[in-house]
## 1
Amino acid sequence: MTTQTHFAPHQPTHLRQDLARIAQWITPDSRVLDLGCGDGTLLAYLRQTLGVKGIGVEISDARVLTCVQRDVHVIQQNLEDGLAMFDDQQFDTVVLSQTLQSMHNTEHILREMVRVSRQAVVSFPNFGYWPHGWSILRGRMPVTGQMPYDWYDTPNIHLCTLLDFERLASKLGLRIIERATFNDAHEVHWLAQWRSTLAVYRVTAGAPGAVSAT
């Protein structure tokens, strides 16, 4: 008698908001590369719920150890060194979650993401969130939940707005398939450029197209 495996309904409730949306964009039994995978939370979830075959890349010793303890396949490497170890289209999805703003070579990592995978998913804090502008008008760099650092100790070196990212995607020849924006745990549909604190994009290589906000 053959036993068929059934995965749980794909409605993440215990993941960070951007990771939950990313999980909704992942196909069962697919191959996923998570860049800057942290403690392996997303990959562990995807393996358990969708049967995903995942690999993480992480630089932190402590986080790599946590990944190993979670039985997450992880490679310890600095993302600034690139993805030369991976073949073209080796993965179905590559994820870069809340890490883009800390990358020195932003264009290179985005090009590499669409080289090694069929689709890339990127999330980052939205510098266009309206209180940030108000803070700057008052003479201070913004410090918020998505950007909790002072100007002198922040790892965020390339902050951007939604429009900034979309223009860069167009410049690099990336097609935006879908966009989701959030403020805390709530999804933002209206005036997302100013009201959202976090953006998540799903892109692929190809001619730029219209953005679908879902």
Note: Residues 106-116 form the longest helix (11 residues).
## 2
Amino acid sequence: MLADKELKAFVPTIMPDKAKTFYQDILGLKLLSEDNYALEFNANGVLLRVTFVPELKPQGFTVLGWNVPDILNEVKSLNKKGIVCEKYSFLDQDDLGIWTSPGGSKVAWFKDPDGNILSLTE
């Protein structure tokens, strides 16, 4: 039924100005629209709607993630922009916060200004 339809992803924010700067200037997503309810970005063909909410309790799991060809390069680029990856005591991560899964995938997590957990996977 929906397999051939475009996907739209949502992430909440209580700080629209900081979210706009983060998603547009730090992550490099193109801002498509902005109104009193949300910011909408083009995330490589997927619409990402950063929705304004009155209150927010960030979840303890990943809400958005990107597949990347070179995670080391992406993490270093984030670091240059002041974004550091999360480190979790229950995972064996390297100094940059990159974890190698049992299947060989490399994963790193970071947060947006609202504390939403985002990830990179190689």
Note: The chain has a mean pLDDT of 97.
## 3
Amino acid sequence: MEYTTGKVGRVFLLKFENNDILIQSLSGLAKKERIKAATVIFIGALREGDLVTGPKKPVIPPQPNKNIFKGGWEVMGLGTIFTNSKGPQIHIHASMGKKNKVLTGCVRGSSKVFLVIEAVVLELKGVRASKEIDPKTGLNLLRII
């Protein structure tokens, strides 16, 4: 295990509206406010999108199970933002439900908000970390500097 220490900086309260694209909107906030590192907590609903629900087999590099969801799902999740030379790198995991169905995984792509998502972004100050492509896994992983 590796670690670094820091402090909580600014706190942002966000209200995403119907059809906002979750990851794109978070990335826009990170660019506008020059957020280098943060954590995100949210509740609400997603209309449609892409979700990775683990690997097809537990091997490295992993091949992802990709799922498309539609029709409005209740959601709660958390994630991180780390900005590198390519811009903000957003990593979100969420659990979502609709009737008696449940999905849990990594929210990807152009997942759209249904009605509303309320979120809190806690900026992390003083941490020495970034996200970089790991050559072994091919994944964009946390790198503690």
Note: The two ends are 13 Å apart (CA to CA).
## 4
Amino acid sequence: MAKLKHIAIATQDPDSVSEFYKTVFDLDEVGRVDSDNAEGYYLTDGNVNVAILRFKSEVVAGELGAGYSGIHHIGFQVEDAAATDLALRKANAPPKDEINKTLNSAMGGGHGGRNVETKYSGPDGVMIDISQGGWVGA
């Protein structure tokens, strides 16, 4: 059974947004990122990881663009990434190849690692990612 384990929130001010979630909801900071693709924080309640990100790459930001603020994508930890990949494709939810290539995270690219995920186009334009290894803090 897949479990919801990851929510990414895009923002233009990761410092104040992460401080809000840490202060109001007592989330713990478990990591930071500052790469060519994004900068921000990884927060957790011990069960679900919340990534607070300012996207720097238009490719990685996807259709929403780097200037978007709001929920960006949701992630499911799955027991079998290959089987879930097949199920997603059969349900007309194809992988987002350009994003996965930029992140070096397409199927076969290391689903056993932490924070390694593959992104797909879900219903109503919702981006979905799957990970067999899960996310830091989740």
Note: The chain has one domain: 3-131.
